[in-house]
Design goal:
The chain is α+β, with helices and mostly antiparallel strands. The chain has 3 helices and 3 strands.
Length: about 70
Amino acid sequence: MSSEKIMASVKEFAAMTGIGQNRVRELCYLPDFPASKEGNRFLIHVEAANEWLRKRAVDKVGVVSASLKRVVP
């Protein structure tokens, strides 16, 4: 059995990918990003999110900054 996590917190996913925590949190608000809100935190489906990022990189599709929700700490 693999010890790799299926779901990750924003902090864990940021560490895995090298993307900042604030940007990951903003991505979680996008309707097509594979994350769910559980209570007051997001859980990200690691495999689906990596595929989402991979597809956007291959297609050279960026994220429009205006569509991101600004999160106030």
